[in-house]
Amino acid sequence: MRRLSYLSISIKILLLLFILLLILLFRGGSLSVLAAAATTPYDADRNRSVRKVLLQPEALPRPANKERVVCIQMPVLNVKPHAGRVPLVEGIDVSHYQGRIDWGRVATEGGAKYAYVKATEGGDMADEYYSYNIREAKAAGLLVGAYHFYRPQRGVDANFKNMVSVIKRRDIDLLPIIDVETVGGVSREQFIADLQQFVKRVERHYGCPPMLYTGQNFYNKHFQGVLTDYCWMIAKYQEEPPILLDGHIPCMWQYTQHGSVSGIRGNVDRSRLLNGSLHHLKIK
Fold first, then answer.
1. Domains with residue ranges and CATH for the chain
2. How confident is the model at residue 76 (pLDDT cuts 50, 70, 90)?
3. pLDDT in tens, 145-165
4. For residues 41-58, average pLDDT
5. Which of 5, 113, 264, 277 is 20 to 30 A (C-alpha) from 175?
């Protein structure tokens, strides 16, 4: 019995030592971390502090001798190559329909480099604003030209006499224009023959070849292969430049009859150079 009591006492001592060892293990090492993690959901203040530390990247240690790289996104420019094109040279043509024009504003604000002014029409009509427009446009610094509206039914002589009586070579900088928009009821053969004669007489009188004006459709119907040695201003009121079926390239394109220009009330015809330069269109 005494031996059994000693044995039971020894077992109890061993159990106590084992329990003490377990207590020491729970207080240190990895088991203490697991115990702390188990209590975190119930410790609100501790949980907030842990989240705050994790959400602050500046609190993390930085690698030594490392430079911060800053990436800058450069804008993408939508620029199309101009293929060596020169800036467009634009101008206007006017008549009495525009009334009294403020040519100073046209020259400084309107963007026009040249102006063609109506002078005459047919055999006896002269534009009432011609002298004023020529004088004031030149004084404002624009290059000026004049045009005659050709009336086939009036004949070559009447058209010629009327034109040269008003348009004086000394008054204009640019080639005179012959405006042709109708056949006037004459046959095509007579229309072409008379016009060719008229053009030659105008050329001899002014000492320079005139320019001719018409619409794209009128040209393609009546003038293919005719008077191709001369410059043409072609009217086409669309986005694309005029296309002449005989392959001739116009010198000028009148691209709108509803243009807006400072200094002019209402609409005005606007045009631009397509081939050559204003230097080539000057009277030599």
1. 90-281 (3.20.20.80)
2. very low
3. 999 999 999 999 999 999 999
4. 40
5. 264
